[in-house]
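Hi there,

I know you've been waiting on this one. I reran it after we fixed the sequence typo, so this is the corrected version. Both the input and the resulting structure follow.
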Amino acid sequence: MPSQAPDRRQPVALFGVRGRMGQSLVRALRESPQLRLAAAVGAPDSSIVGRDAAVEGPATGVLVGADVALALRDAAVALDFSTAEAVLAHAEACAAQGVPLLVGVTGLEAATRRRLEAVSRQVAVLIAPNTSVGVALAIRFAALAARALGPDFDVEIAEAHHRLKRDAPSGTAIALGEAIAGARGRTLAETAVHERHGDCGPRLPGSIGFAVVRAGDIVGEHTVLFAGDGERLEITHRAADRMIFARGALRAAQWLAGRAPGLYGMADVIGH
């Protein structure tokens, strides 16, 4: 009997395998000609530990473990779609073993982001609150529009997600706001308006408003509105299938594998 050809695809370690994105990534890795699932990690008390990484569909042959160091031993790159509370421990383990890390977790606190920046001096770290290539382009377009239209145009960002999403505004909405504020030479902290209720007075010049919807099974929708006197420009991205995020994450993972230490984003993946 002829021997089986070795699998030359790059091995991937996956944190947060049980979540929606985790299972989408399991599906995408089955189809990837460049990457393969090598290890999947769950919380030590999770019922999925010891089971196949695929909750549905064909088995992967990879059992979910709780040992982070073991999962990273043979990995070329790690993908983290777990929880904001677990990200730092995973990042530090990746730094210790020299494994590049893509962080797709949203709702990260400022202290966590600062620690990830420190980790990126040891190993490549890509922070992507949204791994859609289309969203990466939308962020770029929004920054371009902000520079071109100038401060006379008011900006509003509206986003909608499914009823189970916990953080608000979404990481993508915040990334859009940061890109727009930065293009205008400001920070989002200076310009963001998250709540309007009652007599809140006239709009503050240069402010960036946010509106949030949580309903049904909406995968993800984001619209940036630039409103001037007599004209409006809207930049919209709508996600109909969570697999677009999984495919974008794998594209980013392939780009990240073997990358020099540094802090990266999806803009680096799609090129400047």
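Quick highlight: The chain has a mean pLDDT of 94.

Best,
R. S.
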